[in-house]
Write a structure and sequence with these properties.
It is a single chain. The chain is an alpha/beta fold. It has a domain at about 60-130: Nucleotidyltransferase, domain 5. The protein is built from 3 helices and 5 strands, in the order H-E-E-E-H-E-H-E. It is elongated, with a radius of gyration of 30 Å. The N and C termini lie far apart (about 80 Å). The relative contact order is 0.14. InterPro entries: ExbD. GO terms for molecular function: transmembrane transporter activity. It comes from Colwellia psychrerythraea.
Length: about 140
């Protein structure tokens, strides 16, 4: 007596339970996660925007790079100063806000170093205006 073999059927995998589990995990992590509180940075919307009027508690610092000697110089309220002079000025005067204006040929590292140095000197409100940068 010959027995007939049953045809093997491949198991059917249903994706519905998998999708349900993924959505439940997504909802769970969205509910229990804590979101970071980011500080907002004032950024001018256009390069043609005029610089705001500087009051007695504010200071405007331009970062300039000399093309021939690659030396960095600073222009404080339209007066050329060294960083040491800026340091002394900030210690002698109560400055609450600084507008930092690097030119286009200033490296990002130089900008960050100046910004951190100002923060370490006690200036907590530092705004930036980028001069001569092109948005691609």
């Amino acid at each position: 007596m010959k027995l007939s073999e049953k045809a093997k059927t491949s198991p059917i995998v249903s994706l519905t339970p998998l999708i349900d589990v993924v959505f439940i995990l997504l909802i769970f992590f969205m509910l229990v996660s804590q979101f970071m509180q980011l500080q907002k940075q004032n950024v001018p919307l256009s390069a043609t925007e005029e610089v705001s009027v500087i009051d007695s508690n504010s200071l405007s610092i331009g970062i300039i790079k000399n093309e021939t000697s690659n030396a960095i110089s600073y222009r404080v309220n339209s007066m050329e100063m060294s960083w040491l002079q800026i340091d002394v000025y900030l210690q002698e005067n109560k400055v609450a806000e600084v507008l930092l204006m690097p030119e286009a040929n200033i490296s990002l590292q130089t900008f960050i170093t100046v910004k951190e140095s100002l923060y370490n000197l006690g200036i907590k409100k530092i705004n930036s205006e980028f001069i001569g940068y092109e948005i691609n």
